[in-house]
Specification:
alpha/beta, Rossmann fold, 3 domains, nine-stranded mixed beta sheet, 24 helices, 21 strands, elongated, Glycosyltransferase
Length: 654
């Protein structure tokens, strides 16, 4: 029998909303896998927690034994960060976030900020975070950066599944179009917008059935008044909350789902409708733009009543459009994940390592610093030492005190590696766009107390090389930079080096290839890995700020340009080889999985669910010591040759 788990939720688990249905499904899945799962239902007011709610949560956590594993639904914890922090050290907490509490519709600016700050404070204390969509994962990162409240918990995405269902029938000739709306009656769901939109749809053969609990009584009354005011009593029916059998029958009888939400953290009813082969008319609010694949429905901006009216009118009056969208919905239906797969992914997410040594999931300098720190030891282990020694010989013959420039210097890792291998004294200029990383780099060098190394920093973009220190440098260097640059940038760099007769030392340029190894270090072949790699390589070619990036082709492009310019080029293959079960490499391997999955999702958002499954499977295999990773890299040293001198007529700066 597996280790026991506790799930804490606000109110009763049996509530029929998307979030509670998701929680229920995960409990069922965990129990099928042999876990003992206790569910604790908290009394009190949530999410704006009152005194009773705080007392209930504090009591539930205090009653758990030392090191107990507890999953807390975000609705129950987001407003109570102090209670979470009080018990975080002795319990292994996982936060389950459906969407940020501050993103709820109808909040004032002050209320929104209060919810965001309290929820981020709570998330900063937990061991792991599970979210139900890639959108919510990204949204949390944005909020962490916006409020300068980073958190270090490992974030896993586990999207909802669906129950297999027979396909609904298409409308017959002259049959009324039956529209279905499944959503709790609260402002965020936008039923008032739906009624206003339907008022403009020709009053022909259509009907709209709305199912959902009237959680906000005032809002529900406003929707009823709108129905009455627009004479839609016979066309728009509010059925209230219903049981599962009634809802399944409603899907089966419908011809389309209409979901006018301002915002959704995922939008489970969309995939439920698609499981029945129903086209969906919805908005692009929150995760909905990604949850509904193209070709399976119609999407309009949230809050745009006119656009919603037009979309519904088109669906009701255009038989060809209905047939086209139904075909798309049926095709999507075949690719949907079931709840069993979602449950397996959820269980895998609970096995991820806790926050110790995990990269921070806030954007900006802190994330970059943590990633650079994570990789530094591995970089030092695998990059070439012979090429810097050859550079040292060239520099010694050229000058007694070399001037060195590091492009994209980050927190100074490249300098720390090269300094002991190059002749002293040295003067370095570190160039980067991020002032915080440069400050960290400068402080680390000062702390070393090395009197033979002087360092200056320059906060500047690399889209130009017209910076004074670059004009007088003897050697230009960079590490892990080339995959971000374009052919134009490479040509600019080579022209610059030729003009100033500078050496060039580039390290750890990714070749675009990576893969997995078994416990013996032998390559593992997996079709899903190849598919993910193809998406990653396509993503590498996007513009990263220096033109259309060459990705893994940049190293060879630079070699060709340098050789054509008459430079003598030495190369070394320097792949990372991260061993299965190597505890020193585990955090970096998990970060790589996250980065590759994120890039693949940006490249193919329609495949987010499939990518998430790959991510969870590979992350779990790494956590269990079953697989390692290799990542292709190459280093190069280019020295001016006899034919690389600039023409005497050349003058001016590049």
């Amino acid at each position: 029998m597996s280790e026991p788990l506790t799930l804490i939720v606000a109110g009763e688990l049996e509530q029929r909303t998307g979030g509670y249905i998701y929680d229920t499904r995960m409990v069922e899945a965990l129990r099928r896998q042999g876990h003992l799962v206790e569910v604790i239902n908290l009394a009190g007011c949530f999410p704006a927690a009152d005194a009773e709610a705080a007392e209930q949560l504090a009591g539930a956590l205090a009653a758990l034994p030392e090191a107990a594993r507890v999953i807390i639904d975000g609705l129950a914890m987001g407003a109570l960060p102090d209670v979470i922090a009080e018990h975080a050290e002795r319990l292994e907490m996982t936060a389950l976030v459906h969407h940020p509490l501050g993103d709820e519709q109808g909040l004032s600016e002050a209320e929104q900020r209060q919810f965001h700050e309290s929820e981020l404070a709570a998330l900063a204390a937990v061991s792991r975070i599970i979210v139900t969509s890639r959108f919510t994962e990204r949204r949390l990162q944005v909020l962490a950066d916006e409020y300068a409240m980073p958190f270090k918990a490992f974030v896993s995405v586990v999207e909802p599944g669906v129950e297999a269902a027979p396909a609904s029938d298409a409308p017959g000739l002259n049959e009324p179009i039956r529209l279905l709306c499944v959503a709790t009656l609260v402002p965020r769901k936008g039923q008032d917008l739906l009624v206003r939109a339907l008022a403009g749809v020709p009053h022909g053969a259509w009907q709209c059935d709305c199912y959902g609990s009237p959680r906000d009584a005032a809002y529900a009354e406003r929707v009823r008044q709108l129905i009455d005011a627009n004479g839609l009593d016979a066309k728009v029916l509010l059925h209230g909350e219903c049981d599962e059998a009634t809802l399944i029958q409603a899907y089966q009888n419908a011809h389309a789902l209409v979901l006018p939400s301002w915002y959704e953290g995922y939008g489970m009813v969309v995939t439920e409708a698609l499981a029945h082969g129903l086209p969906v008319i919805t908005t692009t609010g929150g995760a909905l733009d990604e949850t509904l694949p193209e070709g399976a429905g119609l999407k309009v901006p949230p809050g745009d009543v006119v656009a919603l009216e037009r979309a519904i009118s088109r669906f009701c009056t255009d038989a060809e459009l209905r047939a086209e969208l139904r075909t798309g919905a049926l095709a999507t239906r075949e690719a949907l994940n079931d709840w069993q797969a979602a449950g397996a992914a959820f269980a895998a997410a609970l096995t991820h390592p806790v926050a110790e040594a995990q990269a921070s999931f806030s954007a900006g300098s802190q994330f970059a610093a943590d990633w650079l720190s994570l990789r530094e030891a591995v970089d030092f282990n695998f990059r070439s030492k012979e090429l810097p020694r050859s550079a040292a010989k060239w520099l010694s013959a050229r000058t007694p005190a070399p001037r060195l420039v590091d492009l994209g210097a980050g927190r100074g890792s490249n300098l720390r590696f090269l300094a002991p291998l190059l002749p002293m004294p040295q003067h370095w200029t570190l160039i980067d766009h991020d002032a915080e990383l440069l400050a960290e780099a400068s402080a680390s060098i000062e702390a070393s107390g090395h009197k033979m190394i002087t360092v200056q920093t320059l906060q500047a973009s690399l889209d130009s090389l017209n910076h004074a220190p670059l004009q007088t440098a003897d050697l230009v260097s960079a590490s892990a930079l080339l995959d971000l640059v374009s052919q134009r940038w490479i040509d600019m760099l080579v022209d610059h080096c030729v003009h100033h007769q500078q050496a060039l030392l580039m390290a750890l340029s990714v070749t675009g290839e990576w893969g997995f190894t078994d416990t013996e270090g032998e390559p593992l072949i997996d079709d899903e890995d190849h598919w993910l790699l193809a998406l990653f390589m396509a993503h590498q070619r996007r513009d990263k700020g220096l033109g259309d990036a060459l990705g893994g082709e940049a190293h060879n492009a630079l070699v060709a340009a340098l050789e054509e310019a008459g430079y003598r080029v030495e190369q070394a293959s320097t792949p990372w080889q991260l061993g299965a079960g190597n505890q020193d490499h585990r955090a970096l391997m998990q970060a790589l999985i996250e980065g590759w999955a994120e890039a693949a999702t940006e490249q193919a958002p329609e495949a987010a669910s499939r990518i998430a499954q790959w991510r969870e499977r590979r992350a779990r295999a790494i956590a269990e010591g079953e697989v390692g990773i290799w990542v292709g890299h190459a280093d190069l040293l280019a020295l001016p040759g006899a034919g690389s001198s600039p023409d005497d007529t050349q003058a001016g700066e590049v």
